[in-house]
Amino acid sequence: MSRKYFLIGACCLGIALFLSLISSISLPYLPALDYARVKFSVALSNGAGGVKGAQADFRWGIWGACAYDTDGKRTCEFLGHGYESGFIDPTGQIVLIAGSWTRGLAIHPVVTAVIAIAVGLAVAKWEHGTLAATLTSALAALMLLIAFAIDIALFAFVHHQVGKLKEVNGNVNAGTAFWFTLVELVLCIIGAVMVLIGRRSDSGGDAYPMFSNQSGGFLSRFKK
């Protein structure tokens, strides 16, 4: 039975590791994975040459922000850790997303490393590996909670800044990587609990040796 719990926990951690890994690569290297996105009803300049087309779609990842025109052509002008991005509305008003709001996204690659350690400990044959895996998974869950709070902060700030634009109808949504973070958090919690239950089940038979039938123990003294 303990092996079943270990397998469930290891699978949950493995899936969380995969999702965290691809989310850490994110935009602009994986176009489908972004943390926040906004779609405008009119073309806007992104402060670095503009976007052509009747609509403009802007997306934010860990390592950069990209703009898409109506033909799906992508332009990524803001690259690097803690990048700054912004828009210019038809009236000429400039709205910026400061680097301080995107810098915190770098916690995701760190979380990926922690989850990888937890997976390694969960499948290791080390005597105290399962306990270490449980603690590491709990640490990863805590870091994911912080990361999710950072993602929410970025999403909320983008929504706030887009609301300042005039003569523009902007629709702000959470990106795919945003929801991946929430899934990773749940999986890490489940993984930590399953590994812990598996460890307790595995050691349950030896937890109270004085009541064991094999060794006789204290109760054997009353047997006739």
Automatic annotation (TrEMBL):
It comes from Mycena chlorophos (Agaric fungus). The keyword Transmembrane helix applies. InterPro entries: pH-response_reg_palI/RIM9. The chain crosses the membrane at residues 105-124, 131-157, 177-197. This is Pali-domain-containing protein. One of its GO terms (cellular component) is growing cell tip. PANTHER family: MARVEL DOMAIN-CONTAINING PROTEIN, PROTEIN DCV1-RELATED. Keywords: Membrane, Transmembrane, Transmembrane helix. The keyword Magnesium does not apply. It comes from the Eukaryota. Gene3D superfamilies: 1.20.140.150.
